[in-house]
Amino acid sequence: MSQVFPKWTNLIPKVIAPLAVLGLGLVSFGYVYYVDNKYWMVGYEPQQPVDYSHQIHVGKLGMDCRFCHTHVEESYHSNVPATATCMNCHTADEATDQAMLSSDLWKKHKTNKNLVTLRASFQSGEPVQWRRIHKIPDYAHFPHAAHVNAGISCYSCHGRVDQLEVVRQNHSLAMGWCLECHRAPEKHLVDNKGQMGAPVQVTDLKTVAELLASESQAQRGAELAKQKQLQPPQHCAACHY
Ligand code: HEC
Ligand code: HEC
Ligand code: HEC
Ligand code: HEC
Ligand code: HEC
Fold first, then answer.
1. Contact criterion met (CB below 8 Å) for 128 and 52
2. pLDDT digits (tens, 9 = 90+) for 184-197
């Protein structure tokens, strides 16, 4: 048989085709990664001026989110605590120093770099410059308290913060994400007002995570949605005005 194509062209299917597939794969991976994660800052986890750990304070010490994020149930915006809130426990004056000298924890904390920074902030009145993590663009509106009061847990939007050493963003906060829940909020509703028994704390992330993953959520959520008469808006002007 006469050779129509030179011999090297036999390599085309063996080498070039897999390369092309690989290339295509990389491009689509890159696209998905960029669009789903990087662009929307999923995983955004900036270095903070003080290494504050939710894992220690919430996970280990059992503090409620609202001790520090005091406005989550009342206000359009949530808030990050002032240094004074931390000083409920991390004070350091002569008196406490004397009283606590026997405590190993205090000895350790007296020279802890982060706590030295924290106490300096309190003394000078200069707030700690926490870097903002979750932020939607100014042309969209997100009323924080309305969600918490409707029975949506911090868990649904911020994940298991109680397990984090450093807070990271774990959902895109994109319009599609908002609408996905607005179309089917029952998947995320918890009985925060005790309409169907003992109330569930929206800040009890572990319990909420278990409840939402359980088989009974579909029925309970649907019942709660009916009782609460929630109508999450889908018209543009609700979020853009
Ligand atoms: C002892 C005080 C304290 C408690 C309790 C606490 N937080 Fe925080 N939280 C902070 C501080 C300080 C920051 C800012 C520094 C940081 O991002 O780690 C913060 C940041 C956050 C952020 C990121 C804010 C941003 O910039 O977008 C989220 C989300 C958050 N907390 C959720 C929670 C949840 C949920 C709970 C309860 C499970 C909780 N916090 C309990 C002090 C606290
Ligand atoms: C209810 C009391 C309480 C409050 C309020 C509190 N802390 Fe703490 N914090 C503790 C205790 C107790 C420890 C030691 C925990 C351990 O090591 O087991 C600690 C540990 C720490 C540490 C040291 C972690 C390490 O070992 O390196 C830092 C830093 C810290 N807290 C920052 C903060 C900041 C910032 C705030 C305010 C947003 C805050 N704390 C509010 C009780 C508190
Ligand atoms: C329905 C979703 C949703 C729920 C539920 C929710 N958050 Fe948020 N949270 C957001 C979004 C979105 C932002 C960013 C808002 C913005 O940019 O205006 C945010 C911002 C924050 C911030 C940053 C505020 C700042 O100014 O730095 C904190 C802290 C916070 N949330 C804590 C909580 C806590 C604690 C709970 C539970 C009690 C909670 N969130 C429940 C979606 C939610
Ligand atoms: C996990 C579920 C969930 C997510 C995610 C969510 N929402 Fe909602 N949203 C609700 C529910 C439930 C209501 C209904 C509250 C009510 O009727 O009291 C609501 C109500 C609202 C309202 C009307 C509030 C009012 O006072 O009537 C606005 C505006 C809104 N959401 C904006 C947003 C935006 C913007 C985002 C995304 C950044 C978002 N939501 C993400 C569940 C969610
Ligand atoms: C539940 C709240 C909500 C509703 C309802 C909503 N949006 Fe949005 N929209 C957002 C949020 C949050 C963003 C910012 C994040 C993003 O760009 O996805 C946004 C972004 C946008 C953007 C900018 C997108 C981009 O790629 O920069 C446009 C355009 C837009 N919305 C148009 C609309 C129109 C038109 C409607 C009605 C059909 C609508 N939105 C309904 C929450 C909402």
1. no
2. 999 999 999 999 99
For 212-234, the pLDDT digits (tens) are 999 999 999 999 999 999 999 99
Say how far apart CA 202 and CA 133 lie, in whole Å.
Answer: 21
Condensed to tens digits (0 to 9), the pLDDT of residues 144-180 reads 999 999 999 999 999 999 999 999 998 999 999 999 9
Asked if residues 78 and 72 have their Cβ atoms less than 8 Å apart, the reply is yes
Burial per residue of 34-46, b for 16 or more beta-carbon CB atoms within 10 angstroms, e otherwise:
eeeeeebbbebee
**CA separation, residue 168 to residues 12, 39, 84, 94 (Å):** 46, 15, 24, 37
Pocket test for ligand 2, best of 86, 109, 119 (most atoms within 8 A of CB): 86
- 144 CA to centre of ligand 3 in angstroms: 6
Distance 220 CA to ligand 3 centre (A): 25
